[in-house]
């Protein structure tokens, strides 16, 4: 019997786990299709009721974005499928100790970060559970995570970011990241995951584009000039700025270069990437260096890697060092070994 659960219905429940994407999961208990109390039993079962009849008990999972394990919440059902449903938190009745105040003004709008409402300790627990679930439940392996390596820095670590461009309602441009499950853009002036000088570069470009009425690309019509902004940084404070455009010339090029040079000490190069193709691929195949160099360098274990705007390189340098150290330790390689570094990008 299908559970009697409807869209827009309000339900009080307890969060017992996380989905693979970090949503809270409530296991709603239905008896003969009617809502009963919360249960942590994941299996459908059959029990005898008080008048000796047989009642069907079904556990129906509801995915709740932003809810944490152990919390009691009142949710509103926003979508119902055959085997599960999705809900939105209306009220937190009992908050988890792992819940923290939001430190990003864009968090509830931007679709990029999903876990900033929980402590980093809770995030680590979730990620360990996610890997174990993939190994055991999906992979059917008798294996689990033996050691977890937390990061010491969780902000300003990304060495590459890409921002989309769109027309704002006030005729200026919106420059930022997509709303969750949308191609509308959340206008962002600073991102907690990138460096301050990358934020500065983003806002300089915004000001330049608005001043000179640079037309943003419209993915529906295929018209417009500016499609994306891609920024690449390194540990030394250098930054590459890339404008992804539909043609190989831009307005007021000298003014933009002059402003970036004056206001960003590590400004290493300005690249114009030409992408005339329809679709959601960010970079085109043609690069034009308008200023400086088309690449920067990053050092890792005494090796120097040359990175251009399209290079595949791990975005978190500290965690790259941890990952590579573990590979070297577990591999116990000798100078006579031949090692294949597959899906390696620049070879890091």
What does the model show?
- The strands form three sheets. The chain has a seven-stranded mixed sheet with strand order 10-9-8-11-12-13-14, covered by helices on one side.
- The radius of gyration is 25 Å and the shape is globular.
- Residues 37-53 have low confidence and may be disordered.
- Strand 11 and strand 12 form a beta hairpin.
- It is built from four helices and 16 strands.
- With 348 residues, the protein is an alpha+beta fold.
Main sheet makeup:
7 strands, mixed
Structural class, by secondary structure, is alpha+beta
**Rg of Cα set:** 25 Å
Which shape, going by the Cα principal axes?
globular
Head-to-tail CA distance between termini: 54 Å
Number of helices: 4
Runs with pLDDT <50, length 5+?
A: 37-53
> What's the number of extended β-strand segments?
16
The SSE string, one letter per element, is EEEEEEEHEEEHEEHEEEEH
Quick structural overview:
With 348 residues, the chain is α+β, with helices and mostly antiparallel strands. 18% of the residues lie in helices and 32% in strands.
Keywords:
348 residues; alpha+beta; seven-stranded mixed beta sheet
Question: What is this structure's SSE topology?
Answer:
Blueprint: E1 10-18, E2 24-31, E3 34-35, E4 45-48, E5 54-65, E6 72-80, E7 85-94, H1 120-138, E8 160-167, E9 173-178, E10 185-187, H2 196-211, E11 226-233, E12 239-245, H3 253-263, E13 267-274, E14 286-292, E15 295-300, E16 303-308, H4 317-331
Helix pairs in contact: 2-3
